[in-house]
User: Fold these one by one.
Assistant:
Number 1:
Amino acid sequence: MESSAFRLRPYQNSDFETLFRVDQSCFPRGIAYSRWQMKFYLRSEGARCLVAEADGEVAGFILTEQTAEFAHIITLDVLESYRRRNIGSALLQAAEQAAARLGVPRMVLETATTNKPAIALWKKHGYREFGTIADYYGPGLDAYEMHKSLRHSPEGN
Ligand SMILES: CC(C)(COP(=O)(O)OP(=O)(O)OC[C@H]1O[C@@H](n2cnc3c(N)ncnc32)[C@H](O)[C@@H]1OP(=O)(O)O)[C@@H](O)C(=O)NCCC(=O)NCCS
């Protein structure tokens, strides 16, 4: 349920430090991105970043990298105080729509096998486990690789 208004807008360079802090607060030490990693992903070819604003501040963001074959979700972050207000879903749907408009056939991502909120969100949006990547986030920290087709079935589902 959406309990307060938010809006989505494209990333601006002046958002960098805020997004870095949001990511640090969303993931444990060692999994959250360093400044170097964040800059690397934001500048990589095909990178797209959308920011959600609520109450005049950044509430979350999604960062993807796109090729002709797939759009890879690098991260989806919503500040704890703004969770369960549909912001993560709105960011995800906007990223999917942007990829679909460009004819990209599928979305791909990795998510920790222990990250129950994220897995619930991905599944709600039609993502399916494609495989497990052992030690993806470090020793003993496995990830599911998840995919979603952006191609519509003939029935329009
Ligand atoms: C995962 C995350 C992005 C979800 O953001 P959000 O804005 O709270 O998500 P939404 O409000 O759009 O939730 C959509 C659905 O996801 C599921 N979901 C989200 N959080 C959940 C939780 N804590 N427990 C169970 N299901 C959850 C629910 O099905 C929810 O629908 P509902 O609220 O109608 O039940 C947010 O919890 C987050 O930033 N977590 C830390 C970073 C992270 O793990 N990112 C994803 C991996 S890259």
Number 2:
Amino acid sequence: MKTIVPEVVVAVIGGSAIIGSGFPGALEGVEVIEEDIVYETPFGPSAPFTRASLEGKEFLYVPFHGITDEIRNTEPDSAGERLFYVLMKAGVRKIIGCALCGSTNRLLDPADVVIPDGFVDYTTKRAQSLTRSLRRKGVDVESTMYRLHRPFCPTLSGLLVEGSREAGFPRVFSRGTVGVAEGPRLESPSEIRKRYADEGLDVVTMNLVPEVFFAREIGACYAALELVSNYGEGLVSTEWSGHGAFSEFQERWSRPAAEAILHALREMDVDDESCSCPMYRWRTIIE
Ligand SMILES: [Zn+2]
């Protein structure tokens, strides 16, 4: 287990959308520097990271939101707290996330990509403040406040839109609102209708929280690729069935999703702050 986190300013938080793609090592142009790196954090050991580089641009990668069999997001010393401690120590300034999601907008179909510009958090058991979590562990960090009026970085989101189009997805939407469910179960038809569809939400997923606001808390830009894998229960069709549907879907689309993320990595300017994301966070004397 390592205690020193190297300075790396870009991170990719993996999710179900790229499981099976071989990200990052199997993709052209990526050089893996080190794999299976477990960092010591005040919350316990992190999930295994990969440190890699794409055309000289270094990035950290962690699979599946930093969640493992032992590390959950819904329990104390959560995946999000461990993951973002590492990203904070690395000095990460640009973060790309991804996930599979269900449609809650009847116009969406499987294999559509939504690059979201909004979210509604329906989770109840997840850490809300990295600063408070760290202080509880005796780590001295400055207090910050932040706004979420534009939670997703417009610049990184634009690169994900471009990358998704180039990767061959049938339809790519450059805006949309994500509902975040606690899980791990999927929703009932009534929940899809009353909680998401009737409220104007476009897709539902489980692991956008806490990463979307922990990114802001550490002063990093964040954008996410949400890949529709199924219709929300009862919304359009009942003719999809569990594991088979998901694995066939992933076999077809995980590689294009990984290519879309690679495009964003390749094209991003790590020093560009014209998006203003870092300005939406400030030091405060109130804890
Ligand atoms: Zn930004």
